[in-house]
Design goal:
globular; Tet_reg_excision_RteC; mainly alpha; RteC protein; 2 domains
Length: 276
């Protein structure tokens, strides 16, 4: 029953991200959209509730955290945009580096739960993502973005925060990159040094959007920004103007040219391996 609301949200958040508005305006629009969507989801849950435990777990694990993570992300971006020093490159860099340290501290504190989620484990889901376990896991007092006991579980907010912080990492990294364009350490920090993308950026964007369309990452809950950030980490590359690139791909006569080439090359390799 949530498909239509989430489809509208996904389209709208992509429109905001891809718009020509400045970062602060995007954050404000994103906050309003996320709050509006969460309120709509809350009304649906209050009206119809869930048919069974599996549906409840799916909602609090895979559906609500999407707009919730964007609410947290846009709120953090807005706070950063309003708080960052107005003058001087070095003061701005120091401010952003402090923000990065806060993110690292957050992930260090919550590494066990983050690992549980990122490994797609399920054995604790009835405790983490149903409302009947709230007494066993009280809310963290520092989390106060959008919280109602009847519309929250012990860990859905934390899972949304983890996803939001991954988005926020990307935001911090891009701002630092603009201030220190020659600092490759920004993209080397978490990357395996064995892999470097040497094809065209447009080809990589094709792959990323194909994976997003197929919904094979995080059970379809990974948003395009998170996937792009992960690929930048893996392949040691900065995908500037990725949204513009995607719209340019859509305007081409052969929209998925690189993916079609990959299919042909893989089929040829298989035939060669079989001695055909």
């Amino acid at each position: 029953m949530f498909e239509k609301a989430m489809s509208i949200f996904t389209d709208e958040v992509e429109r905001i991200i891809n718009s020509q508005e400045d970062t602060l305006k995007k954050a404000e629009l994103g906050i309003r959209l996320s709050n509006r969507t969460l309120s709509e989801l809350q009304r649906m849950v209050e009206k119809e509730d869930f048919e069974d435990l599996a549906e409840e777990i799916n909602f609090f694990r895979n559906i609500k955290p999407i707009p919730m993570s964007y609410l947290i992300y846009f709120t953090e971006v807005r706070t950063c945009e309003l708080s960052i020093p107005k003058l001087g490159t070095q003061p701005k860099i120091r401010f952003l580096e402090k923000e990065a340290k806060k993110i690292n501290k957050f992930f260090s504190k919550n590494k066990d739960f983050a690992n549980y989620m990122e490994q797609s484990r399920r054995y604790m889901d009835p405790e983490f993502f149903t409302r009947n376990k709230l007494d066993d896991f009280p809310f963290a007092p520092t989390i106060n973005y959008y919280q109602y006991p009847e519309f929250s579980t012990s860990h859905d907010m934390l899972w949304a925060m983890i996803q939001a912080m991954y988005k926020f990492i990307h935001y911090i990294r891009e701002k630092l990159h603009k201030l220190q364009p020659g600092n490759k350490a920004l993209f080397l920090e978490r990357k395996p040094k064995l892999l470097k993308w040497t094809g065209s950026k447009a080809s990589l964007v094709e792959i990323i959007y194909a994976l997003h369309a197929d919904g094979v990452l995080n059970n379809g809950t990974a948003d395009i920004s998170t996937i792009i950030s992960a690929f930048q980490d893996i392949f040691n590359i900065s995908l500037d103007n990725k949204y513009k690139t995607y719209y340019e791909l859509k305007s081409r006569k052969e929209k998925a040219k690189y993916l079609h080439q990959l299919i042909l090359k893989l089929e040829n390799r298989m035939r060669e391996d079989d001695g055909e």
